[in-house]
């Protein structure tokens, strides 16, 4: 097809700004999906996405839109000629955890819809993605959603967008994903404003295709989602991944409507998929480039391997499920190369895996998928970040700096006496909130050891704050607390910064005098007692009672700093007796007392899986 009739675009939006609903209306307007098959969030194929109302995996879709030339302002001697346009939409996640995937998807399009909720205004994550789009030279189309809402602040949010983009107010479009108002006009403006793709002709037998996502099929292997930049690809060709160097035969090529639809070939400008047949993890990755084996080309610029931000250890509740957990992680890795795992063992939890995630949402998604898709009962340790620790040389009395080690798990964090210096990662944080909440936010930032930078006002009553903060503090329930103090209006985006010195220590939680590695965490020394109190109190409230008295203790800085006791189940062993001498009852009570003492000495507390999950989540 002629490239001038193709438009490739994505939607930039914060979570819950109506991105998936707008995509639904586009599919309806272009008749891509029959009315009988339409449902809400049709592009969100995972049950977890539909349940949470967020986009987790990217989903491309090809729409065919027939329009008369006069609607585009094209005059053909008074005739109304119809033209078919191909609109390739990539529905991207809005959460900060998936910013790298979004950045690569933006490389696959020429235009983006900047979708702003008219009830909430510009959000921090929107700014981050917008900057990515601007750096890539992508055409931005500003659009306000939810204009039919009684809470809509159309005039106020329009001013925010005008100030943000430095654009003419007439360039801003208005839509309602719920009613479909303005969607037809938006499609026409996409055709007018977004430039068609351009092919850089590099000669015959040349192919360059950018991988912006992929998934795994147990029958067909890895299926890569690609944007063809140059050349043509068809079934049966010998291809190669530029970064991983893996060779494969294309088993099928096609486009998304939105289900996979096989085609004879794909050519420059197309967005589609290639079935690779590869069934090994770690081969396909977002941002890689596919070229022809006979004429390989270097990878497109900008490729990087996503680095884990949060670490947590995952153990099977039943030790016999270890191999099944290993197989399940391998299958998930085939469809999500951004999380990593390696085997580890713990004295009390047995064999498991230390896993790296892009953020807390990514961690929740992976563990929830393990539970749902593979029916596994898991023990998940408290999420942590990476620390660099300089150890004191044990053989020296001068305390000279010895070995430098990376610590991924709080359980392996050294004792204070063997630490010379600890370094931790910091983040550059951007917070956007209505001005009236700034006082509350400043107090919150002080509590989380933040360094406050510039504060800028934009729009009528919105403020943007630049902040530097330890990643440890960002993961300590900061986002939920920000939402609380800003009545839900605050939003954040962040980027990993450099490593700095940290004043931290390990907090261990003991249950019945035994350390539970899953509950160990690294905390600020100045907050050690407060953290210990909170964790012990929370565990005391959710841990089931046992047959013997159970102590829960928090240990840090070389001593016990918090303690609670769960009383044992009580049973009247003399309830079946009546009459007779009192010594008969005393004899039974003494026997029960000795049994409980013996049980306390030898007994172990079995902690249910839901306790580990509740301890991992905040607010439970």
UniProtKB/TrEMBL annotation:
Protein's name in the database: Elongation factor 4
PROSITE patterns reported for this sequence: G_TR_1, G_TR_2
Taxonomic lineage: Bacteria, Candidatus Nomuraibacteriota
Superkingdom of origin organism: Bacteria
Gene (name only): lepA
Function description: Required for accurate and efficient protein synthesis under certain stress conditions. May act as a fidelity factor of the translation reaction, by catalyzing a one-codon backward translocation of tRNAs on improperly translocated ribosomes. Back-translocation proceeds from a post-translocation (POST) complex to a pre-translocation (PRE) complex, thus giving elongation factor G a second chance to translocate the tRNAs correctly. Binds to ribosomes in a GTP-dependent manner.
Entry GO CC: plasma membrane
Catalytic activity: GTP + H2O = GDP + phosphate + H(+)
EC number(s) reported in the record: 3.6.5.n1
């Amino acid at each position: 097809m002629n490239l001038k009739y193709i438009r490739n675009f994505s939607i930039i939006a914060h979570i819950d700004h109506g991105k998936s609903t707008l995509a639904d209306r586009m599919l309806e307007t272009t008749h891509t999906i029959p009315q009988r098959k339409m449902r809400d969030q049709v592009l969100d194929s995972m049950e977890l996405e539909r349940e949470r109302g967020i986009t987790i995996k990217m989903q491309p879709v090809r729409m065919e839109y027939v329009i008369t030339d006069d609607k585009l302002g094209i005059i053909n001697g008074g005739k109304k000629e119809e033209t078919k346009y191909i609109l390739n939409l990539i529905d991207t996640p809005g959460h900060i955890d998936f910013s790298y995937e979004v950045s690569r998807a933006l490389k696959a399009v020429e235009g983006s819809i900047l979708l702003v909720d008219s009830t909430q205004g510009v959000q921090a994550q929107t700014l981050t993605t917008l900057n990515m789009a601007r750096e890539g030279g992508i055409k931005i189309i500003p659009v306000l959603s939810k204009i039919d809402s009684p809470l809509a602040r159309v005039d106020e949010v329009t001013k925010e967008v005008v100030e943000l983009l430095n654009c003419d107010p007439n360039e801003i479009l208005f839509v309602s994903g719920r009613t479909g108002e303005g969607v037809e006009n938006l499609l026409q403006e996409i055709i007018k404003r977004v430039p068609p793709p351009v092919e850089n002709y590099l000669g015959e037998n040349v192919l360059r295709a950018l991988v912006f996502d992929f998934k795994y099929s147990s029958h067909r292997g890895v299926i890569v989602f690609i944007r063809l930049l140059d050349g043509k690809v068809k079934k049966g060709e010998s291809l190669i991944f530029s970064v991983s160097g893996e060779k494969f035969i294309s088993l099928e090529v096609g486009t998304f409507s939105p289900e996979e639809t096989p085609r004879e070939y794909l050519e420059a400008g197309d967005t589609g998929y290639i079935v690779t047949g590869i069934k090994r993890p770690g081969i396909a990755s977002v941002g890689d480039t596919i070229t022809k084996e006979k004429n390989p080309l270097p990878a497109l610029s900008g490729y990087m391997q996503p680095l884990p931000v949060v670490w947590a250890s995952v153990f099977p509740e039943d030790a016999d499920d270890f191999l099944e957990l290993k197989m399940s992680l391998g299958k998930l890795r085939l469809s999500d190369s951004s999380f990593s795992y390696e085997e580890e063992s713990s004295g009390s939890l047995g064999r498991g895996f230390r896993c790296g995630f892009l953020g807390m949402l990514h961690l929740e998604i992976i563990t929830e998928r393990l539970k749902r898709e593979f029916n596994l009962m898991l023990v998940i340790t408290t999420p942590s970040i990476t620390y660099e620790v300089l150890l004191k040389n044990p053989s020296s009395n001068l305390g000279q700096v010895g070995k430098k080690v990376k610590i991924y798990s709080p359980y392996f964090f050294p004792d204070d006496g063997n630490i010379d210096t600890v370094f931790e990662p910091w983040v550059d944080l951007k917070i956007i909130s209505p001005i009236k909440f700034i006082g509350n936010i400043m107090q919150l930032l002080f509590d989380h050891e933040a360094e406050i930078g510039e504060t800028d006002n934009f729009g009528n009553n919105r403020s943007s704050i630049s902040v530097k903060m330890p990643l440890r503090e960002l993961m300590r329930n900061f986002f939920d607390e920000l939402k609380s103090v800003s009545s839900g209006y605050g939003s954040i985006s962040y980027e990993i910064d450099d490593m700095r010195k940290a004043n931290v220590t390990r907090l261990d939680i003991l249950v019945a005098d035994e350390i539970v590695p899953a509950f160990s965490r690294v905390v600020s020394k100045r907050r050690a007692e407060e953290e210990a109190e909170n964790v012990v109190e929370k565990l005391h409230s959710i841990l089931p009672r046992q047959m013997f008295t159970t102590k829960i203790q928090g240990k840090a800085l070389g001593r016990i700093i918090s303690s609670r006791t769960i009383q044992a189940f009580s049973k009247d062993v003399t309830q079946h007796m009546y009459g007779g001498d009192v010594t008969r009852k005393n004899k039974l009570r003494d026997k029960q007392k000795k049994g409980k003492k013996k049980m306390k000495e030898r007994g172990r507390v079995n902690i249910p899986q839901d306790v580990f999950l509740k301890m991992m989540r905040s607010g439970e």
